[in-house]
Each structure stands twice: as structure tokens, then as C-alpha cells.
Amino acid sequence: MTESGSAQVAGGVYDTALSDAEVQAAFVNGDIPVSVYGLGKMGLPLAAIFADVTGNVLGADIDDGVVDAVNDGTCHVKREPGLASLVDETVSEGALAATTDPRDAATAGEVHVIIVPTPITDRNEPDLAILDAVVDDIGRGLEPGDFVVVECTVPPRTTIDRVLPKLEATSGLSPEEFGVAFCPERTSSGRALEDIRGAYPKVVGGVDEESTRLAAAIYGEINDRGVIPVADATTAEAVKVFEGVYRDVNIALANELATFTDELDIDVREAIDVANTQPYCDIHDPGPGVGGHCIPFYPYFLIDPFETDAPLLETARAVNDSMPGYTVEKLRDGLAATGTELSDASVLVLGLTYRPGVEEIRASPSLAIAERLTAEGASVYGVDPMLESFEAFDLEPLALEEVYERSFDGVVLVTPHEEFEEIRWEDVDARDAESGLCIIDGRDALEQQTLEYSNHRVYTIGGEAGV
Asked: Which of 62, 263, 369, 440 is most solvent-facing, going by the fewest CB within 10 Å?
């Protein structure tokens, strides 16, 4: 890593006298030290790629374990192809290091990249406390010519109305002395390196023209697909929020259509698939709910902070939030068909994370499903090969092999991890051997294999009617 301050660009990188080519040359030569704030499942891949390109990155995270792991060349993020080797390589070369003190990073860096969590509160209000704290730390170390980039998703106008004034007040600098841009991460777990390096173009929007130009020059060296400069930081913020909102509304449409399955007596998923062969139709897949740290939260970045009514966004949230309850009701109906009460049932929940292969449980539908089943009096068990801790779930955890040692009345597949493809369904005992298991398949992942080897009854959400 370049010694802090020894090869920084004279006058700072935010300098209208520097051409794009000069900025890019200094960037790839390591003459522009980069600090990345937040080394989580999105931040660590970003820091590692910056380090690979520039050779001069200091990452900051308040988690001692994360920082120690990075400095040891170890990757704490699971199932992220290529990341472990990249972290090891960049740390070994001295291109990447980490600190638990964001102010150290603020002092060392000339480009400051913020990628920290921006969740919502229990009242569905955006919680920007972590962002505020990092911005405050950066402001205390901000120098003339520095450049601050926000990558984490925020409500539109956050950069111009919140980040910029806080940096100005904390640093004592005028807005003309430093640059600020919003450049949203457009990254999915399990493919982070691929996404950052160019699966999609990078969106960049600055608080002024020079900030936009500088962001485009820097990210042009990171992203092989190039950049899309937009009018300003607020437009860039809206792009990211709109992407998430689109998916939430579209999934809500699919979920609502799925509830017509029994009354129409059709496979709604088949109808959706065929409808999507028309070029103007792109309906997503139905399921037991919407989870993760993105899609369930981003609508509230528009609903809460602004006075404009958003009935469509609110309705979509209500529909998607209702799907865990709908899933439980389908299980109740399936059990009742053979005389079993949900209150007396033994139920296995498969897949507790919100996505296959991802160690993330925020807003996972399985949280609400387990809670509802337990509240109904059922004995609830859960399996998830990604998780080490099950404290957040109202159920008894089982290892996958343990499912063959118990008997169940019902199974709810929430998240189809690849490990579940090896389940020997003929060896999973039903308490009522004649009726078999009542299986609610939330993702259209189990139907064929379960029917082929057993007498288990499967109801696929949005699939063929009946069990």
C-alpha cells in the first residue's frame, strides 16, 4: 500500500485542472488512496476490487472480527465466488488493509467510499444513523480536494440535503473544496465481483458537474461495462430505489395472481410463463414472501420521507407481507384435508435465509412463517445449511440429516438451497403414513422429485391447484 500522503495527487483528486486521463492514471497507479467504509457482504468485494485496481485501499469496519479477518487475508463473506482468493491476494500484496477506526481511514483516504447498512426502523422509517456516523468521521478527516462517494441505498435527496451539509459543517470546508457523488451499488450476493466489475454499467451522479465527471473517471477503471452519468446525485439515488421498487411491485402482482390458483383451477405459474413470451410482459415469480435487506425496505425510502402519496407502493408491500400468512393457511388447508389440525401438527420449514446460498435472514419470509406456526400451536422445526445461529427463529433447528430421524405432518419449503436437491423424500417419515406429508412448495422447486418417490402431497404456490 502506498504510504499515506506520500504519493497523493497534489491539491487532491477533486481538481478541475486534472483531466480524466490524469485522474485515471493516478488512480490505477495507487497515487490516490481509497478508503472504503463498511466491509460487509457488499463492502468487502468492493474494497477488494478497488485494491486490485489501485493497490492502495484502507477499509474500515467497527467489527473487530471482520477487520482481523481481512488483515489476516481471510474472507468472512461466504459463498462469494472468487472473493476469498482476491482478499488473500490483495492483502498479501499490501494493496488492502483494514482498521476499526473510521477516522484513521478518513485521514488516510483521498477518495472515501461509503457502503454501510441503511435499514428501516420498526415503524418503517429509513434508519440512516450508521451513514450519519460515518459521514461525521469522514468530515473530521476531510481535506481540500477529497472526494466522497455514497454507494449504499438511501432515500432520494439524502446526498444533497444530508451528506453534503454534514460534511461541510464537520470539516469546516466549503462545498467548492471537495466533491460528493452518489454511485449506487448494483450488486447481488453470490455474484458480487462479477456485478461490480461490469455485469451492469455503473450509475454515477454528483452534487455538481465536477463530482459527476470524477466519479465517471474513477468507476470507468473499475467497471468494464462503463458508466452512466445522470443529471445529479438525487437522480442516481432514485435510480437505485426505483430498481428495488419495481421488483417489489412486480412480485406483489405475481403473488396476488398466485392467490387465484384454486378458484381458477389452473397452474398460474404456467400462465405467467406463457404471458411473458409477449415482449411487453415481464411478470416475476410468486412465492411465500419477499425478504432481504433491499426489496422489502426500499419502498419506504419513498413512502416515509415524502408527502406525495404512494398507494401502489403501500399496496405492494401489504400484498408481499401477507404471503407468509397465505402460506401458513395453505398448509392448514392441506392438513385439514386429512383430518390433521395445524395446532397438533409437526412442521418442518426448509430454508430460513431469504435467498438460496446466501447467509442473510433480514425480512426473510421464514421468520413470519415460523412465528405464525408456533403461535398456532404447531411443533416447528427448521433446516438451513447456511446458518450457524437460529436465535431469530421461533423453531427448533435441525441438521439436514436429522430430518430422517423424525416424523412430520407438513413441510414448508421457503428457500430452495441446493443441498435440498439431495433430500431423500421417500425416507422422510410422515406421522400419517397413509396420507403422506403435506408439502407447501413456495418456490416451485420440489414438486417433481417428491411425487416421483413418495405419496407426499404437494401444493405449489401459484402452481397446480389442490394437494
From this structure: 263
